[in-house]
Amino acid sequence: MTAIPQPRKQPRQARSRHAVAAILEAAARILAGDGYAAFNTNRVAELSGVGIGSLYQYFPNKQALLAALHRRHGEETLAALDEALARSAGRSAREQLAAMVGAALDLHRRELGLHRVLEREWPIYDEPPASNPIDAALHARIAAWLADAGGDPARAGLLLRMADSLVHGLLLDADPQAKGLDEAITDALAGYLALPARHHT
């Protein structure tokens, strides 16, 4: 099994956190715009405005940057999911599911180039679910939502894997603006959960 590169240290002060955020944003922009072939720590340091020595304090190599971008994406996914659930509170389970699907698609559409590199070229640097706290948090959120909706919390893991496959498969390998993607993914997941059919107007 491939070892996941880890950062050398975690930023503690606001200035350090800002520097790390700038480094990751620069890395994301290079990968999204020019791909992995043009990706190196010197370019990241130059674009971020952070000295190469400071970059190496946190990230020993570009593989550690890739792993950190995978982690950042997980954190953004969790935040988007929480926001979607808060926004759709009190609505039907199907409407809440649609809100979560829409949030996931919007998140990926914002950085399609980056996600194509992370998911298609370097998926090995995504922390495996068994040791990934973000995956555990996502699983807990979905299990709690299923329980609240009167469903089976034990379905949370498979639902997440299905959603992940559908979002990446339909969005990254097809036209990201294709009409009806949100509805198609929601329908597929709702079918698995045996939720009521969508009402057509």
TrEMBL record:
<feature type="domain" description="HTH tetR-type">
    <location>
        <begin position="17"/>
        <end position="77"/>
    </location>
</feature>
<dbReference type="InterPro" id="IPR001647">
    <property type="entry name" value="HTH_TetR"/>
</dbReference>
<keyword id="KW-0804">Transcription</keyword>
<dbReference type="InterPro" id="IPR041669">
    <property type="entry name" value="TetR_C_15"/>
</dbReference>
<keyword id="KW-0805">Transcription regulation</keyword>
<dbReference type="Pfam" id="PF00440">
    <property type="entry name" value="TetR_N"/>
</dbReference>
<dbReference type="InterPro" id="IPR009057">
    <property type="entry name" value="Homeodomain-like_sf"/>
</dbReference>
<dbReference type="InterPro" id="IPR050109">
    <property type="entry name" value="HTH-type_TetR-like_transc_reg"/>
</dbReference>
<feature type="DNA-binding region" description="H-T-H motif">
    <location>
        <begin position="40"/>
        <end position="59"/>
    </location>
</feature>
<protein>
    <submittedName>
        <fullName>TetR/AcrR family transcriptional regulator</fullName>
    </submittedName>
</protein>
<dbReference type="Pfam" id="PF17918">
    <property type="entry name" value="TetR_C_15"/>
</dbReference>
<keyword id="KW-0238">DNA-binding</keyword>
